[in-house]
User: Which sequence fits this backbone?
């Protein structure tokens, strides 16, 4: 039996990434930006993200822990059929994604934010009420710009296996179903006030730091275009030498608004449903 060495591990991680597919990676993609521009953008964005994280944490402060309400014991949040079905659907979809990545030797793509957030949502559906759940829930609500962009500007030229494209859409739709379900479930899944943007700023800083540190470092080492950190995606409407700076601007604006709109819609849906039921009764 052949020994499994580092080469086998690296082959499973990104051996199947085809650099000949536009926007997938390779030397040409890695050379899209000059080393000087890449370094300047990295220093700028890491500094901005660190500032956002520090300021947001200071504003949230110790008062958050003092005001924290455990919202009951785990027995107050019993398992329901809806939660179990949603959890099963998300786990099955994510399991299929992992299977596709194993089959195509592209496991490195599991580090993209949407896959990380899917794993986080499985944790939120599984873990009993605690402080970690409340913190991660509030952060993840403001990190769901990825599914929106994936649905509006899908990158499908690398999905060649049967049903891989269908699973792509199912995963990103489910990523929206989960926060709507949790917000309407209430209890520990409680959003901050609509006028409070501290959590949105913290989420923005964490996302930018993750992109410009971990994802970019791995992308440069492997020459795999992780979440478009090396070169723009084929569907990027801001394709050009400053595509990352444009992305930093429009994604900051989107992150500030998107989570609040999601929260507002989720709070309005039950009232709308009650109004419709009341109207049918009057008829």
Assistant:
């Amino acid at each position: 039996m052949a020994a499994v060495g580092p080469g086998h591990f690296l082959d499973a991680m990104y051996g199947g990434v085809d650099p000949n597919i536009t926007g997938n990676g390779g030397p040409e993609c890695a050379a899209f930006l000059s080393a000087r521009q890449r370094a300047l953008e990295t220093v700028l964005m890491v500094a901005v993200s660190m500032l956002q994280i520090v300021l947001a944490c200071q504003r949230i402060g110790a008062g958050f822990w003092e005001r924290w309400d455990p919202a009951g014991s785990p027995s107050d949040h019993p398992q329901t059929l809806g939660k179990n079905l949603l959890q099963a659907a998300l786990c099955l979809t994510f399991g299929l994604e992992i299977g596709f990545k194993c089959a195509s030797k592209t496991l490195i793509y599991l580090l993209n934010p949407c896959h990380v957030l899917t794993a986080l949502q499985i944790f939120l559906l599984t873990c009993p009420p605690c402080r970690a759940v409340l913190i991660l829930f509030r952060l993840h609500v403001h990190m769901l710009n990825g599914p929106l962009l994936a649905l509006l500007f899908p990158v499908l030229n690398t999905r060649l296996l049967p049903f891989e494209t269908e699973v792509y859409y199912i995963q990103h739709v489910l990523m929206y179903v989960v926060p709507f379900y949790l917000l309407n479930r209430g209890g520990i899944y409680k959003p901050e006030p609509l006028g409070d943007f501290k959590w949105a700023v913290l989420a923005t800083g964490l996302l930018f730091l993750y992109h410009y540190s971990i994802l970019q470092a791995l992308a440069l080492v492997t020459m795999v275009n992780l979440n478009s950190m090396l070169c723009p995606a084929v569907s990027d409407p801001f394709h050009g030498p400053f595509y990352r700076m444009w992305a930093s601007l429009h994604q900051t604006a989107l992150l500030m608004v998107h989570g609040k709109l999601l929260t507002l819609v989720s709070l309005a849906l039950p009232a709308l449903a009650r109004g419709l039921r009341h109207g049918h009764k009057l008829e």
